[in-house]
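Example 9 (inverse folding). The structure is encoded as follows.
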């Protein structure tokens, strides 16, 4: 006999019998959603075949953005040397910790935020785009209002049901 746990509002479960599925109930709508995990996992690969991103969020076919809750977020410049990228990520994390500390009263919040911004610009996530084909930047825009809308719709995703995948 198969026992199935039903997620509560705001919770998610993963079913691994047969095709892996994620089942969740968004806190806002309370409507149960079930999606195959494989349909949601778009991984961008580097030239040597290494994964450049977590399979949690769909990555656009050109590798420029990933999608979270229906919004495009620019990915790091894939042309950065791995050592440089790691150094910049460490700097970003250090700066984010400084923001956290400043919010608690120890440090200058505007200075800490400026360091976060500088690290993100150096990574290519903000500032000038890292591609050279003249395509516009769609960072932080709803995917439904960009040229990626049909690609995203083909994944079977909506703004409401991408929060946990």
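The amino acid assigned to each position is listed next.
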């Amino acid at each position: 006999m198969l026992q199935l746990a039903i997620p509560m509002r705001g919770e998610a479960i993963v079913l691994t019998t047969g095709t892996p599925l994620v089942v969740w109930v968004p806190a806002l709508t309370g409507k149960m959603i079930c999606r195959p995990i494989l349909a949601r996992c778009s991984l961008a690969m580097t030239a040597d075949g290494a994964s450049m991103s977590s399979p949690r969020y769909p990555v656009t076919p050109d590798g420029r953005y990933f999608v979270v809750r229906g919004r495009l977020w620019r990915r790091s410049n894939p042309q950065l040397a791995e050592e440089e990228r790691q150094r910049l990520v460490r700097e970003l994390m250090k700066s984010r910790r400084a923001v956290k500390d400043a919010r608690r009263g120890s440090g200058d919040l505007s200075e800490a935020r400026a360091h976060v911004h500088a690290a993100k610009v150096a990574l290519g996530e903000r500032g000038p785009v890292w591609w050279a084909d003249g395509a516009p930047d769609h960072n932080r825009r709803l995917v439904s209002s960009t040229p990626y809308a049909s690609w995203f719709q083909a994944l079977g995703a909506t703004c409401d049901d991408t929060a946990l995948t």
